[in-house]
Design goal:
The chain is an all-alpha fold and 64 residues long. It has one domain. It has two helices and no strands. α1 runs antiparallel to α2. The longest helix is centred in the last third of the chain and has 27 residues.
Length: 64
Amino acid sequence: MERINDKEEFLSVRAEMDALIKEATEKGLLSSDADNEYTKKIGELAKRISDYEFDTLQLFSISV
């Protein structure tokens, strides 16, 4: 899985995830027990976002 390296990429990945969530919701494919390509891709993007946010917060706490 590719890491997010900067804020521009972060915003792009977040926009992609938001679009997938909207599309999956409209199609009824985002239930709590759903296991499909939408949920897999959304999960992958969410992990990348989470890793970037964690790394960024670590940098902020170190620099304080």
